[in-house]
Design brief:
Elements (H helix, E strand, L loop, with lengths): L3 E4 L5 E5 L4 E2 L6 H14 L6 E7 L5 H12 L3 E7 L6 H5 L12 H10 L6 E4 L2 E6 L13 E6 L13 H10 E9 L4 H9 L2 E7 L6 E7 L5
Parallel strand pairs: 4-5, 4-8, 5-7, 8-9
Antiparallel strand pairs: 1-2, 2-3, 6-7, 9-11, 10-11
Helix pairs in contact: 1-2
């Protein structure tokens, strides 16, 4: 499938799929969307010393990079599992300009280390951050029950890949999450929220990033003792 490099409204780059008319990130701002959905409403409220994060749609590695620096500043230990069936090419990754928007001097080194890391094996990026990139389809993945604390659900939208937004997949997410675990996604479609509720999540609509009215947060409720 043809892929094109484009610049989003906040100056950060992303990849565009003309056949699907779909972007890897919001055309209104890749960085702003990632920061708002996954860091502000996903990572920041999770104050545990140790977190296991699962990302559906590792893509260009933007969410992982932002998570690295946010968690390092809080001395959180993060095991970051990124699922991606069709990774971008080396040329596409080299064209991503995310590190130019940060004052962190090691940003480029970290970003490159993440993309040089072998697939399907954990790789220590720092003493607090372990990255595990998995090259599989979500339907092939098996994770241990209650082994994940936070899910970044960043798949292509249900308009182009409805199979990635099924009740069956959300049921797996629910099983993989620990009690009190959280799933955040940019998607706010009514059917997605109904399906999340159907498998047991408590679902909240939150203000969306620039260009989007809402986003979705789903919590695995801690059972009453």
């Amino acid at each position: 499938m043809k892929r094109e490099l484009v610049k989003t409204a906040d100056g950060s780059t992303t990849i565009y799929l003309p056949e699907w008319n779909e972007h890897y990130h919001s055309s209104h701002g890749a960085l702003q969307e990632a920061q708002h959905v996954f860091i502000k409403h996903g990572l920041n409220p999770k104050t545990e010393d140790y977190l296991t994060i699962f990302e559906m749609g590792f893509g260009t590695g933007l969410n992982a990079l932002l998570t690295y620096f946010a968690s390092e500043k809080r001395n959180q230990y993060v095991h970051y599992i990124g699922l991606e069936a069709y990774p971008p090419t080396e040329e596409e990754i080299a064209a991503m300009n995310y590190t130019s928007f940060t004052t962190d001097e090691e940003a480029l080194e970290v970003f490159q280390a993440m993309h040089r890391a072998d697939w399907n094996t954990p790789r220590e990026i720092s003493e607090h951050f372990v990255l595990e990139k998995i090259g599989k389809q979500i339907q092939e993945l098996e994770l241990q029950k209650e082994s994940v604390d936070l899910v970044y659900y960043d798949a292509f939208g249900p308009r182009v890949q409805p199979e990635l937004w099924s009740v069956e997949i959300f049921a797996n997410m629910y099983d993989w999450l620990s009690p009190g675990g959280v799933l955040v996604t940019y998607c706010a479609k009514g059917q997605v929220k109904r399906d999340l509720k159907a498998v047991g999540f408590e679902v909240t609509s939150l203000p969306g990033p620039p260009g989007k009215r809402e986003m979705t947060k789903a919590v695995k409720i801690i059972p009453n003792s």
